[in-house]
Amino acid sequence: MKIEQLAPAHDRGTFRCGIPSFDKYFRAQAGRDAAKSLAAVFVGELASGKVVGYYALSSATVLLPDLLGNGQRLVSRYPALIAARLTRLAVDKRHRGQGYAGVLLRDVVARLQASPLKPMALIAEVQNEAARHFLEHAGFQSFSDQPNRAFRALQ
Ligand SMILES: CC(C)(COP(=O)(O)OP(=O)(O)OC[C@H]1O[C@@H](n2cnc3c(N)ncnc32)[C@H](O)[C@@H]1OP(=O)(O)O)[C@@H](O)C(=O)NCCC(=O)NCCS
């Protein structure tokens, strides 16, 4: 699988991950968000041209007490830290369980760590229990006061 920035040539029409809002976003909104720099959208594509997964990132800030509440020892003079928001990460249902999500997530982390701003944390919204298990397995933990948001320290 190669991972590249979303472009008009990518075939988004047949992508189905099982969460209708994620599919609709990918088909109808992701291109516009990327064009307006509202989101960075990356696509995982097989050599055949089949799009098997995608992720969308946007910027965020996170309050230090929110992270400290989960026992993280992050030291900063500033109450708010730069973070990145993983707004969506999805793999087509027909290609699940083959490691593609893991590869996409590693790509997210590598890109963020290589960026000059180096966000301190990656934040994700927890859509359902399966997503929670996936995110926990990938090292995310829930905010103590917001069970449907999770974060993973990046530094
Ligand atoms: C969650 C999702 C991305 C997983 O895709 P996938 O291709 O099946 O995942 P992978 O095969 O790459 O698995 C990567 C790792 O996550 C684990 N994993 C995958 N789904 C899991 C789940 N539901 N619960 C716990 N662990 C899970 C795998 O065991 C694997 O672990 P390993 O690296 O230790 O072997 C996919 O089910 C999906 O698109 N769901 C709908 C969208 C969604 O909920 N996204 C969540 C994040 S925003």
Brief rundown of the structure:
With 155 residues, the chain is α+β, with helices and mostly antiparallel strands.
Poorly predicted parts: none
Q: Return the string of H and E elements.
A: EHEEHEHEHEE
Structurally, the number of domains stands at 1
Assign the CATH topology: Aminopeptidase
Overall SS class? alpha+beta
Distance between the termini: 27 Å
Oligomer: single chain
Largest sheet: 7 strands, mixed
Give the helix proportion (percent range): 25-40%
Number of strands: 7
Shape: globular
Which CATH class is shown? Alpha Beta
Bound molecules: coenzyme A
Number of helices, where a helix is a run of at least 4 consecutive DSSP H or I residues: 4
The amount of beta strand, in percent, is 25-35%
Tell me the name of the CATH homologous superfamily.
Gcn5-related N-acetyltransferase (GNAT)
Mean pLDDT: 91
Q: How do the strands line up in the largest sheet?
A: 1-2-3-4-5-7-6
**CATH architecture heading:** 3-Layer(aba) Sandwich
Radius of gyration: 16 Å
